[in-house]
Amino acid sequence: MAKIGFQLNGEEISLDCEVDEILLDVLREKLGLTGVKEGCGQGECGACTVIMDGVAVNSCLVLMNQVAGCEVTTIEGVKQNGKESAVQKAFVEEGAVQCGYCTPGMVLSAEALLDKNPNPDEKEIRTAIAGNLCRCTGYSKIVAGIQKAVQIRQKERNDDI
Amino acid sequence: MTYKWIGKKVNRIDAPGKVSGEAKYMTDISFPDMYWGKIVRAEVAHARIIEIDVSAVEAYPGVRCVVTAKDVPGVNGYGMAIYDQPVFAQEKIRFYGEPIAGIVAETKAIAEEAAKQIRVTYEELPVVHDMLQAMKDDAVPVHEEGNVLFHRHFVNGDVAASFEEADLIVEEEYQTSTQTPSYLELEGGVGIYENGQLTMYCASQHPDMDRKQLCDILALPKEKIRVVGYPVGGAFGGKVDLTVQAQIGVMAYKARGKVKVINSREESFSSCWKRHAMHIRMKTAVRKDGTLLANQVTFIADTGAYAGLGEPVVNLSLEHACGAYRVPNVILDAYAIYTNNSISSAMRGFGVPQANFAMESQMELIARKLDMDPLDLRLLNGIKTGDKAILGHTLRLAMGTIDTLEKITEVPLWADKEQFKCTDNKWKRRGVGIATSIQGAGLGRGLKDDAQADIRLLEDGRFNLCVGTPDLGQGNLTAFVQIAAEQLGCDVACLNVLCADTQCTPDSGATVASRTVYGVGNAIVSAVDTFKGRAIELAAEVCQTDSDRIHIGPAGLIVGDKSYSYCEIADMATKQGISLDSRGTFSFPEADIEIEGAIGLPHLLYSAVSHVALVEVDVLTGEVDVLEVACIPDTGRVINLQGLEAQVEGGTVMGMGYATMENTILKDGKVITDNFNTYLIPTALDCPKIDTYPVEVLEKSGPFEAKGIGECVGNSITSAVINGIYDAVGARITSLPADMERVLEAMEKDSEGGESCE
Ligand code: FES
Ligand code: FES
Question: Which residues of B5-23 are buried (b: 16+ CB within 10 A; e: fewer)?
Fold first, then answer.
């Protein structure tokens, strides 16, 4: 057992866990953050995506000792003051959600993309979510959702100025 | 008629909870005093069990209990048609991954560790992995009764005479692959057995049917079992049969507590219900003007170790053996064969995608041989309302085949196909393929297909709309809300939906067979009408007035010049001591004839879809890229366009995956493509641009003249892609999927090299 400290959804936390415990299991089982999903356990599906220090990663491949000192955002940390993010709003508007099982991972991959590249083209969007499998949608409406989120973010930025 | 909600943009009611991560799937549910269960699975595909030694495990620290076949309190068997699948293997193992035992422990890690300590002594038997061999009389039997689970022979008209009369006969064999549904949510959930009652939280397509099977397994009456089955992280037919409910149920029963089990992806791919691999022989007789005269078809389907829905699946292949065409003379045979190749049952399309692939391939060959335009050939033979279908029943309801085909001429991908086919890359060839499909909706003749729905007015003036059918992702709950709001004249926001919980929702039938919008939709209309009648009656009584002076307003009742909100109506009802809860029921209409020995055949209601696909083939590698697709669905009146497009896009991509990449590979009965690194499904980079062109052939018997579409959208795309490859490089693919190896092989065999644009 070790004490591992990291920032989770904006809050500092410190946990007793084995260093080789898997982040996905810790999030779901110990912390009750079940918005993070497991679809394959092997880094193949993206359902377990979280953002770690700005990068979308598969939490099923992350060991707890790698998490020490990092900033981790899960789907539960995406809403700000109870308000949906641009990506979340756009996913609802564009019908990007069906069974919804891939959705948390998709949203986080999209957030990570737009934080780095505020104006991606379609190819860049598709590449950014290529590791997130979706069996329901055929991806068209997810891509449309991310494109719409780009516009919403732009508008929000303009409104801020 | 103008509508307020039907055909309007309404966002999915479940989307906000899903984008925020707040939606609790059955695998997300946990309790503080909960055990973890682990299913111990067979590591051979065919064997006689000599001994299962659990002694080491029972004493393992942290293990609460171990269950095997002998711990099943009721019937150690389940299945949608026959109970031939044991909850835990007894005497024999019939597929790799079959449950043998269950371990209940304090933690997941202990359960997993303890599972390794179970000792099973087997006597291995030869693995039956070839369905054609398995059919033979001297084959090793998977089940004592023999390997032919089902055979149906059907004749209509005079096939021999038609073959004599024919100007052209096209004969071919086809082989389809085993497709895995690959829903993203792994099978799992929580079972609670406390105070003699079982509660099962596990994703489901039909909680009432799950409960029925659990009653038999646990020897408990219906009142003692509650099944909650929604939300569902995708199903596509694969959660119609029980997945892990039976095993969880027995574990919870013995543990006298709460037990959670979640499959790993490897366990899932080994033990989930898959699409039947089929071997199909087709011999089609045609007149030189293109008129189809006769079709002789044999379907042999690998149903794997247990029956599942093998019989109805091949029955559906039989009914759809000639696709969307009028063929007056047929000889049809359909077989479902037991093997040790995992298990197959329902999957989106239910036997129709296989039949459609064969028939639409035949059509392409016929068009080429007669030098006819492939669209003209299809238009000439396309089935219409009033026609007799191949099984001899009259198609009384709306048939959209011709409408969807005619629309193809307006689709740029087809109208300007020569332009689309141009490419500068000299190693690539492009082609455009078309195909069309129909799909029977509902359970079919002889299988009582009833739906119920409840509408309940709440104290605050809002409504609970209660349906037993879960939304598996397709968006039917949103369509239901639109239907209810339209019929009630209220705002969609006034409706809450309760769904798929046997404690508080009626049996609406299963979410299968493209049946819910039509069947449950109609039940909702009827429930709302009953409610309206009762509310008016109540107001007439309380206000001492004539009921014809009372009208339904947007938020309540209007009595003369006074209006009463639904809140006030609810209050009135309470004071009068009456309930306004209203149930609606609907029974699917049935075809005019029955087919002896083929329960569920034929259907009466069909959806229709056509696809156009632009395909690019790399002539060096054989790689196929689907660049653009147009899909033309006929779903009657469109209730929610965004939802329809979403079904089209998802179904199209699933059918495209079936055409080009998806293949469950088994070696000695073991699924070796047991995760997404080997079982490939389309990613965002593989997917084409998809345009949807709905044609609305209104179906009067549907709710607001709508019908279902969930399955048909995934059928004809497979053949459109395969026909696109043919157009591009002249290679006929007769075995799915069209992976690089097969395409190269076919190109070598019958390539005409294709033409470049210069
Ligand atoms: S669960 Fe982590 S990538 Fe699939
Ligand atoms: S919405 Fe079901 S997997 Fe993406």
Answer: bbbeebbbbbbbbbbbbeb
